[in-house]
Amino acid sequence: MQDKSLQLCIVLLVISFFLFVLDRGGALTGVRLVVQRLGIPVEVSINSYANSMFKNQIVEELRNQNQELEAKLSKLTDVEKENTDLRNQLNTPLSSKPSLLPAQVLSTTYAYIIDKGSNDRVTEGMMVVYKDIYIGKIVKVQATTSRVLLPTDKESIIEARTVETNARGLVNGQTSAMTLTEVLPTEKLDKDDTVVTLGSLNENGLGVSPGMVIGKVDTVRKSDNSLFQEAKVTPVVNYKALNTVFIVYK
Amino acid sequence: MKLLKLSILVIVLLFVELTIISYPIGFFFILLWGIFYSFDEAFILAFIYGIFFDLFLNQPVGFTSSISIVLLYVVFLYQRRFDIRKTLYLSIFTFSTTILLLFAETKIWYSGKALVSVGIVLFCAKLLFSHQYYKNEKPTYFRK
Fold first, then answer.
1. With an 8 Å Cβ cutoff, is B70 touching chain A?
2. Are A31 and B21 within 8 A, CB to CB?
3. Strands A146-149 and A133-141
């Protein structure tokens, strides 16, 4: 009996390896496309049904309003500073307004998957936003779906600054929250400071635009021995509760 | 026909797992099916589960199925030495397979999630598969 099971295991493992090799060579793109096309409507409907079932409508509305106000507030502070700068330096070219492509969130458990891919001219490095909030960067693109790297993901590192004090640092993902690291001890960091992206766009205009809200400073860790100070940053939005996000097209 | 029905159930559980619950409930079902019913069927289900998992998550196809089959085979090997249907062994195998599977998928050691998984699996085992345990109360190696 054990031999038979071992044989079955070996056969299945060999098939898995064979499929793995075929997939790496791109031979399974058609199969992937068909399965994803069939799966996307099911995932979207389960997601929206679950969200509508579990969410309290009023709380959600208030939360949305709060997010909107926070985003507006940070933007206003930025605009105020920008105004002062512009007064000093005229003829500053204004950045063109980017176009947005709405995308449905398909999966949030193991990876953040959205329903737009290379068929919709989505490429790696594009930024994903919700209102003025930074949701992530596209790191893997398939024909009909893409994978988004959230700021809370371990591999994520974003150049950031605080709106209130302009303290600069790097936001590292910590699974459920984030840490603002490498902030010089001379910079001022306070609780509830809004952390926004510093911006890092490449020559094609892909990457992270400046001034997108990442989160709020929760706790500040500062010691005399360390070269830098750190702060725990909490996201302003629950990424998993979103149904629709927007891909920024240049 | 039975395998087809089971495969559909596993795919439905996979959809729930990808959208609502961040626990590998599809794998839990396969593990319990292997322990309480048939490991041969569980291997095939693990293969199907892994293939669909990779297809939906934009991962290289075959990766998750290989991991799931290997993890199930380890549990299968131990069934000759221990009565793996007992709560203690069920907990140990659930914890170890879940933590390894989650690490393979996310590169994070989710020990808390693995502990919760033990609770989920024990609850399901008691609720759905307990009749199967009491029917064959003696451990596998005494049955001869």
1. yes
2. no
3. antiparallel
pTM of this structure:
0.72
Residues B73, A9: C-beta atoms closer than 8 Å: yes
| Length, in residues, of chain B | 144
**Which residues 39-68 of B have a C-beta within 8 angstroms of A?**
39-40, 43-44, 46-47, 50-52, 55-58, 60-63, 65-66
* Count of beta carbons in the 10 Å neighbourhood of residue A183: 23
User: Residue A207: helix, strand or coil by DSSP?
Assistant: strand
Cα–Cα distance, B105 to B107 (Å, whole number): 6
Q: Which tokens sit at B72?
A: 């199930």
Q: How far is B87 from chain A (nearest CA, A)?
A: 24
* Integer angstrom CA distances of residue A147 from A33, A63, B142: 15, 26, 50
Per-residue pLDDT reduced to its tens digit, A71-102: 888 878 877 776 766 665 454 444 556 688 88
**B125 at interface of A, judged by CB pairs closer than 8 A:** no
CB A171 within 8 A of CB A214: yes
∠ Cα A53 B123 B77 (to 5°): 125
Query: Is any Cβ of chain B less than 8 angstroms from the Cβ of A15?
Result: yes
Question: How many CB atoms sit inside 10 A of residue A56's CB?
Answer: 9
Which site among B19, B98, B111 would you substitute to test the A interface, given the most A Cβ atoms closer than 10 Å to its Cβ? Answer: B19
Please state, for a pLDDT cut of 70, what percent of chain A lies above it: 90
Non-local (6+) Cβ contacts of B72 within 8 A are B30, B31, B34, B39, B42, B43, B46, B97
CB contact under 8 A, A4 and B40: yes
The ipTM (two decimal places) reads 0.83
